[in-house]
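Quick illustration for those who missed Monday's session on complexes.
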Amino acid sequence: MSGAGMAGNLGMTRAAVHKRIKKLRDQGYRISGTTRQGYRLEAMPDRLEAPVLSAGAVLGRPFMNFPTAGSTQDEAKQRALQGAPEGLLVAAERQTAGRGRLGRVWISSSGGLWCSLVLRPALRPDQVPALGLVAALDWARAIRDRTGLAARVKWPNDVWVQGRKVAGLLIEMSSETDRVHWIVLGMGVNVNNAPPRDLPVPAASLAGITGAPVSRGALLSRWLRLFSRSYRLYQRRGFASFRQAYLRFSLLEGRTVAVDGPEGIARGRVAGVDPQGRLMVVGSKGTSVFAVGEVSLRLGRNDA
Ligand code: BTN
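Prediction with biotin bound:
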């Protein structure tokens, strides 16, 4: 579009248009310009923008995006303690002290999606782990919807694609014995970043798998839409309404696994999740049920 045309449409001078084009270029928009043909938008940066994210979603606002944070979990927790409203989403382009489940380090270089959502659900603390299962299920759906990849959930709340982990969730909360005050749901998705190497489980990024950049904004906004609905439904009906879908997306169904749970390690074949979202494993001594635990499984690249 010509500079003069834009100036006319916007009711400003050509110099003012030029100034704004420069500003957009500084923000990473690729805009070519020739005197005869005018300006042309060649590519947009993969920025996380509040209006894009919140379209059709209740959760995800207010929204903050830090260029660098230690951990978005800490940023969100600090705000939750100070009374931040449900729905606050804190993101960072990179984290210097990202953390995973069980005290592990979570490597968070730029290009990935690193964010933490503040929730204040009407739930008991024992109902929180299965909410994590629902959040992971919605990540698998969002990844499928935005990339076409067959994403799977690995109990409790990892997302795997083609035998490799692409996303993980970390839930931290403050509660009384029978009432949750707040939850901070931390989400790490390897999108366009180089996936970390030499981890105990193989990791991959979505762009690495599809061979093309994936829009973090589109992915996150899809998840926010899905999870805004699921979150409401979960508080009304519990995990039972999600159980069938979780099983359809489950990576572990029928697989032989080892589960490291509170009562030690159990081996056996996965026989689904119960209506509370607990993992059921059939071993030589009968069926064991796990509300929490770490599952290991040997996988080939094409198994997921
Ligand atoms: C896991 O699979 O172990 C969970 C990983 C959770 C990582 C995310 S990235 C955003 C948020 N901030 C953190 O420090 N951790 C979570």
